[in-house]
Automatic annotation (TrEMBL):
It comes from Nitratireductor rhodophyticola. It holds the Pfam family Beta-lactamase. This is Beta-lactamase family protein. InterPro entries: Beta-lactam-related, Beta-lactam/transpept-like, Diverse_Enzym_Activities. Residues 50-424 form the Beta-lactamase-related domain. It comes from the Bacteria.
Length: 439
């Protein structure tokens, strides 16, 4: 598991910061809670939470944030800071639209499972017919070996493999880059990065299909790419763009009116600046990340990234989380069967898979496993985890988890890119405050 060390050589440190960030890839006085104070929340804890996040803004650690806590049928929303660093731009607000990165994954997984329930997809059948690029794969004899030293795959790729990210390709946690397969993925434009895939879905699959797998299907956990491929599988099964299917089946019925894979012109004034480390200068200072850095949500992308491409608001994302909290139903409409939600939110990995070098950093020191498209809590090694909780964190500065045992949904959205395997202090502040507010 990589760690940032101030004593490392500049080149190694720059590679670590770059690699980790790539993978882990809103009045002047914002209004307070949008919900009336009830017995569901501890007001002192809510006040302390706001002070802690505001202190991070004052210290220049983030430009601002918006957060939501839902508990016992009541919802608290708050925000602090501004769209730009050092008080620049509009204030963060309840309807601020955020790029949410990897908390896209649970939404894509839920959509895939809706299609499984419909009989359009199968969870454990081969995906070869729809994704012929993944048929009859070759697998590296050893992950560090040359690309032409391979053996035939021991079986076909399935949707379960994609959603558990065990289909054979993804983030290889070696920094600086050392393995031929890492260089090949980067050169093909399919390596996990803060920059989403810059090609069509078909081109992405062609590039992916030209590479050997790093492990046999179902054998090892490699973060990220499985959910992009799952999104493409949805497209090919339905004959529509991922965004169109997601809107029709999930987003519009749930009332998620500001959630999409880009921000239209009439809403762009609600999208704050994205910030991240200045990789060219060792990641020491924070700079804006825009089109020149490969982050542009102002127009439809070439490919709707099921792994990290959504923009949303706290209220929109809360609708999805509340549906999952309620076992697949919300406001009288059923989206998923309760047993499907149970299957999605159970740990699908073996102990050996969770402890493997390319997986361990995503398992929160043994407190988490991985379900279908999302992290699942096993024990409370992090404040967002509890036994049976589920959700994920996004590398652009977001965290969202649902805790059925305690009836809690927590969502924190910022635009400060993660730069380390360790959780940002803002995430820790939010989750400690959220738990105290409902404890």
């Amino acid at each position: 598991m990589p760690h940032r060390k101030t004593t490392a050589p500049d080149r190694t440190r720059r590679a670590l910061v770059t690699g980790t960030a790539a993978i882990l890839a809103c009045s002047a006085f914002p209004r307070r809670s949008s919900a009336m104070q009830t017995a569901s929340f501890n007001q002192a804890a809510l006040d302390a939470l706001r002070r802690s996040i505001s202190a991070r803004v004052d210290a220049g650690e983030i430009a601002g944030a918006t957060w939501l806590i839902h508990h016992a049928g009541e919802t608290h929303v708050d925000s602090t800071g501004t769209f730009g660093m050092n008080g620049a731009g509009a204030p963060m607000a309840r309807d601020t639209i955020y790029r949410v990165a990897s908390i896209t994954k649970p939404v894509t997984a839920a959509l895939a499972m809706m299609l499984v329930e419909d009989g359009v997809l199968t969870l454990d059948g081969p995906v070869d017919d729809l994704l012929p690029e993944l048929a009859n794969r070759q697998v590296l004899k050893r992950i560090a070996g040359p690309l032409d030293e391979t053996v035939p795959a021991n079986g076909p790729v399935t949707l379960r493999h994609l959603l558990t990210m065990t289909f054979g390709l993804g983030a290889i946690m070696v920094f600086p880059e050392a393995y031929p397969i890492q260089a090949a993925m980067r050169e093909a434009g399919v390596a996990p990065s803060w920059v989403l895939p810059q090609m069509s879905s078909d081109a992405y699959m062609k590039k992916l299909g030209e590479l050997p797998l790093a492990a046999h299907p179902g054998e090892s956990f490699f973060y990220n790419n499985g959910l992009d491929v799952a999104g493409i599988l949805i497209e090919r099964a339905t004959g529509e763009r991922l965004g169109a299917v997601m809107k029709a089946r999930l987003l519009e019925p749930l009332g998620m009116k500001d959630t999409d894979f880009f921000v239209p012109d009439d809403k762009q004034h609600r999208l704050p600046v994205q910030y991240g480390p200045d990789f060219a200068n060792g990641g020491i200072r924070v700079i804006p990340f825009g089109p020149e850095q490969g982050i542009d949500f102002s127009r439809p992308p070439q490919m709707d990234s099921g792994a990290g491409g959504l923009v949303t608001t706290v209220d929109d994302y809360a609708a999805f989380c509340r549906m999952m909290l309620n076992g697949g139903a919300l406001d009288g409409r059923r989206y998923l069967k309760a047993e499907t939600v149970t299957e999605m939110t159970r740990d699908q990995l073996t102990q050996e898979q969770k402890q493997a070098p390319h997986a361990a950093m995503f398992m929160d020191d043994g407190g988490a496993g991985w379900g279908l498209g999302m992290s699942v809590g096993l024990k409370s090694t992090r404040p967002w985890l509890a036994q049976g909780s589920f959700g994920w964190n996004g590398g652009y500065g977001t965290t969202a988890y649902t805790d059925p045992k305690n009836g809690l949904v927590g969502i924190f959205l910022s635009q400060q890119m993660m730069t380390s395997p360790d959780a940002p202090k803002t995430y820790l502040d939010f989750w400690k405050g959220a738990r105290a507010a409902v404890g």
